[in-house]
Amino acid sequence: MLAASALLVTAGCSSGAGGPSAPSADASPSRTAAQTSPAAEATPPAKGTVEVVRTVAEGLDTPWGLAPLPEGGLLVASRDAGTITRVDTGTGRKTELGEVPGVSAAGEGGLLGLALSPDYASDRMVYAYVTSASDNRVLRMIYDPARPAGDQLGAPDTVFKGIPKGMIHNGGRIAFGPDRLLYVGTGETGDRGLAQDKKSLGGKILRLTPEGDPAPGNPFPDSAVYSYGHRNVQGLAWDSRQRLFASEFGQDTWDELNAIEPGADYGWPTAEGSSGDARFRDPIAQWHTDDASPSGVAYAQGSIWTAGLKGQRLWRVPLKGTAASADPQAFLKGEYGRLRTVVAAGGDRLWVTTSNTDGRGDPKKGDDRILELKVS
């Protein structure tokens, strides 16, 4: 019997458009028979564990995007202040890099997701998803730590623009995939029809080159759209077999964790949660909206981990191929308030940010903070 607070569902369709699995500029990291063979993969136990190792940093203002630096430290985006801050993960010391110009922070918009260039070691480029006065867009800036604090960001270059904006449902998560291409989660801004309109950039997952062009091999010719029928995508992560998973806010009934296939329709606004309708992909896990509001996701120890905002907890979804192998398991329920972002920190560690200063939480002393977790 499935728990009332977290229902598991199997994928609604087993086939889909897809290319070779090897990461390259002209191929999608989609599923193949070899990749999805359960016998070829170790299935994690149904029940896992979470240990809060320490609080890494405190006193953060509306943290949203989080990007681990290869040289050590974390970059954190402040949604409302429009600033990027480097956190020393050893001492918790915070150094402001600078303010990103042109950020229009209102409602759920502002300075949102962060991602490092796949060539960061040589180009020092930081990508950011930003709500401007007219739209949501992706910028990139050079980060120069040799410059004085507060002046370490170069002038931003607009990589991609024209994503619809609103007071709600701005999406905002960006991540470079194993194919070195940029994936962008967007929202439908409350205009439900945008999710099914393949010509609109709202309610989609987009796939771009680092320069902002539609990626070669995308499912729709000359289009950045990779998947559609989404309400508000705020989490993107790949497993060890380069398969993409995304979290999605529901309306009133079901939040979702989806296994993403190129060109697939995830059903919104016709379907919320599992519908069994062959036209749509059903989620691999779903939650009542009071229990999740899933934002960031990460992959570690054979499971997808997703941070819950309204649910104020961290969810673990163990995987078997691109399906869940057991009921979702909740941790940290109500202990730290709203959880926004979760990022793999290597091995059995995760970084998790709280989101209690975003206008919908109940800030306590020290909020907002970054936690280091040990998971299994």
TrEMBL record:
<dbReference type="Pfam" id="PF07995">
    <property type="entry name" value="GSDH"/>
</dbReference>
<feature type="region of interest" description="Disordered">
    <location>
        <begin position="354"/>
        <end position="376"/>
    </location>
</feature>
<feature type="region of interest" description="Disordered">
    <location>
        <begin position="13"/>
        <end position="47"/>
    </location>
</feature>
<dbReference type="InterPro" id="IPR011041">
    <property type="entry name" value="Quinoprot_gluc/sorb_DH_b-prop"/>
</dbReference>
<dbReference type="InterPro" id="IPR012938">
    <property type="entry name" value="Glc/Sorbosone_DH"/>
</dbReference>
<feature type="domain" description="Glucose/Sorbosone dehydrogenase">
    <location>
        <begin position="60"/>
        <end position="360"/>
    </location>
</feature>
<feature type="compositionally biased region" description="Low complexity">
    <location>
        <begin position="20"/>
        <end position="34"/>
    </location>
</feature>
<dbReference type="InterPro" id="IPR011042">
    <property type="entry name" value="6-blade_b-propeller_TolB-like"/>
</dbReference>
<feature type="compositionally biased region" description="Basic and acidic residues">
    <location>
        <begin position="359"/>
        <end position="376"/>
    </location>
</feature>
<protein>
    <submittedName>
        <fullName>Oxidoreductase</fullName>
    </submittedName>
</protein>
